[in-house]
Specification:
The structure holds two protein chains of two kinds.
Chain A: H1 4-17, H2 21-35, H3 53-71, H4 76-79, H5 81-91, H6 96-115, H7 121-139
Helix pairs in contact in A: 1-7, 2-3, 2-6, 6-7
Chain B: H1 6-17, H2 21-35, H3 52-57, H4 59-77, H5 82-85, H6 87-95, H7 102-119, H8 125-143
Helix pairs in contact in B: 1-8, 2-4, 2-7, 7-8
The chains are: A mainly alpha, B mainly alpha.
Domain Globin (chain B): 3-147
Pfam families (chain B): Globin (PF00042)
Protein name (chain B): Hemoglobin subunit beta
Chain lengths: 143, 147
């Protein structure tokens, strides 16, 4: 459950990410593809080489969606409803919680790399909870 | 037996050379207890775990964190036979400590984040990939003797 303090922390941190959305998202995807090659199976239609336009474009999309989630942190279900449908009926990233957890790990590594000591245990906990909540909403309609 | 390329071995040893085992171990364990509070169930004898500040400052957490990461170093010294290295520890975690192996995966992911926060730009994607593989191998070895 996200506390008021968690939400404040998340919004503060996200304001630092906002101006680098594309790089943030792209780096997270790149790290996820390197660390967990099975995630590449969802992108057979992409050029997955480092710095590819498609990864940059998709990274920007992912980061923008997270930004939307941050802005609507009190109503994730509604804010991400369309994305939730997309993941359930079209993308069907499988298994729902597991694969999204791999992306969550890489997103957090990017935050840790760029924030260093500022990625404190409290910030880490808040983000882990937030990304779990987002993943849960995206998996809501799977069955 | 797990196969490690020369590059992977290099990435493991170069990162490990920069790790302060006591500090990183303490931090990793503290974060486990903070980010996944249910893991505190294994540490009821540790005293005050009531807040992130209490956990980070708790001397038993620090000491145990150091112990855990020191043991991790054994895997690094024995990359070609991690299962054998952890055989006894695996039995201990199953028979005496009753720890769900899922917790090894959680701690592994947390360790990666601690390394990322300390090494920042030096913890590139290839580095992360190698270390994700390593923590996976360690977690697998620790679960191997479960029955």
């Amino acid at each position: 459950m996200l506390t008021a303090e968690d939400k404040k922390v998340i919004q503060q941190i996200w304001s630092k990410v906002q101006s680098h959305e594309e790089e943030f998202g792209a780096e997270a995807l790149e790290r996820m593809f390197s660390s967990h090659p099975q995630t590449k199976t969802y992108f057979p239609h992409f050029d997955l080489s480092k710095g590819s336009d498609q990864i940059r474009g998709h990274g920007k999309k992912v980061a923008a969606a997270l930004g939307t989630a941050v802005k609507s942190i009190d109503n994730l279900s509604q804010a991400l409803a369309e994305l939730s449908n997309l993941h359930a009926y079209n993308l069907r990233v499988d298994p729902p919680r597991f694969a999204l957890q791999l992306l969550s790990q890489s997103l957090q590594v990017v935050l840790a790399v760029h924030l260093g000591k500022d990625y404190t245990p409290e910030v880490h906990a808040a983000f882990d909870k937030f990304l779990s909540a987002v993943a849960a909403v995206l998996s809501e309609k799977y069955r | 037996m797990v196969h490690w390329t020369a590059e992977e071995k290099q990435l493991i040893s170069s990162v490990w050379a920069k790790v302060n085992v006591e500090e990183c171990g303490a931090e990793a364990l503290a974060r486990l207890l903070i980010v996944y509070p249910w893991t505190q169930r294994f540490f009821s004898s540790f005293g005050n775990l009531s807040s992130p500040t209490a956990i980070v400052g708790n001397p038993k957490v620090r000491a145990h964190g150091k112990k855990v990461l020191t043991s991790f170093g054994e895997a690094i010294k024995n990359l070609d036979n991690v299962k054998a290295t952890y055989s006894k520890l695996s039995e201990l975690h199953c028979d005496k400590l009753h720890v769900d192996p899922e917790n090894f995966r959680l701690l592994g992911d947390i360790l990666i984040i601690v390394l990322a926060a300390h090494l920042t730009k030096d913890f590139g994607p290839a580095c992360q990939a190698t270390w994700q593989k390593l923590v996976g191998v360690v977690a697998h070895a620790l679960a191997y003797k479960y029955h």
